[in-house]
Fold this sequence. Notes:
The protein has twelve helices and twelve strands. By secondary structure, it is α/β, with parallel strands linked by helices. A seven-stranded mixed β-sheet has the order 2-8-7-6-5-3-4, sandwiched between helices.
Amino acid sequence: MSETSPKLRAELEGIPTYKPGKPAAADGPAAYKLSSNENPYPPLPGVMETVAEAVRSFNRYPDMACTGLVDELAERFGVPASHLATGTGSVGVAQQLVQSTAGAGDEVIYAWRSFEAYPIITQISGAASVRVPLTAGEVHDLDAMAAAVTERTRLIFVCNPNNPTGTVVRRAELERFLDRVPGDVLVVLDEAYREFIRDPEVPDGVEIYRDRPNVCVLRTFSKAYGLAGLRVGFAIAHEPVAAALRKTAVPFGVSQIAQEAAIASLRAEDELLGRVGSLVCERTRVVEGLRAQGWTVPETQANFVWLRLGERTAAFAEVCEKAGVVIRPFPGEGVRVTVGESEANDIFLKAAEGFRREL
C-alpha cells in the first residue's frame, strides 16, 4: 500500500472547526439548550401538516430553483425574483457569496468578534480575513472597517444584529459607511435576527439594498421562523450578485420539505410575530434581571444576550450547565445565552446571580 496521501489544498490547513451549540444532556442536569439561538417554540401552525405532505414525495429531487419559495419571497419583500437566491441556511448562502467574490490574494473584512463562520468560509475560499475589533461597547467599528478597505478587498460582512454580542448598527452610521465603500466591493448585511429588532433606528437591509447595487441582504428561516433543522436561507441582491449565488449553489441543496415549510411559515406570519413578541418580552426580562444583579450587558436586539467574562468564561458556563441550562462559551472572551422558555431563563438568571455573588 502506498504511504503517500492525496494532495489537498494548503488553504485548508489550520481552518478552525465550526463549533455548534452544545446540546442539553438527555441524562444530565442540563435540561434546556440555550446555546444555539434556536426558537424554543414548535413549528408554526400548518407547517407540520405541510411537511407531512411533502414527505410523501421525498423519493423525488426537489425543485432546484426553489420556484415556489422564490415567488413567495419576491411578493413578500417586493423584489424581482431574479434578485433572490436560496441556500442551506444563511450561512450556506454566505459561503456562496465568498466563493463568488474572493479567492487567493483577496481580502474579506468583518468585525471581530462576530459570526464564527466568517473566518472559516473565508479561509476555505483562499482569501485572507481582515478582522476589525469591535468597539468597547461591543459594536461594529464602521470607521475602522472603512479604513481597512484596500484594493484587495472584495467583500465586507456587517452582522446586524451582531452574533454573538446582539448589538446593532443604526441607519445614519450604516449609510455613512456605505458611502465610503467603493462600489466594486460587496457589502453583505447579515440579518439572521432581523425579526427580533425593536430599535426604530436600525434600518431594514432590504430598503438599503434597493438603491445600492453593491449591497446584499442575508436572511434565514432558522431563527424566528423555527426551521433550524431544515436548513433554508436566502439572499436579496441585485441581479449580477444573485445570479452568481445561483451558480455557486449546491444543486438541489434545499430540500422540497424545507421549501414547503418555508412557504407555510411565511403564510403564518401573524402567529410568527406573536411568538417573536413573546421572546422579545423575555429578552427584556433577562437583560433587566442581569443588570439588576450587577452585570454589564450590551444592548441586544437579537434573541440572545452577551456577557464578556474573559478568563471566567469556562467557569460560568460550567455553573450554568450544572444548574440546568447549556449556554455558548467563547473561551477567554465571554458567553452567549439564547433567550428561551421562561423556565430556562429563570434557571439561567438564578445561576448568574449565584455566580455573581461568589465573585
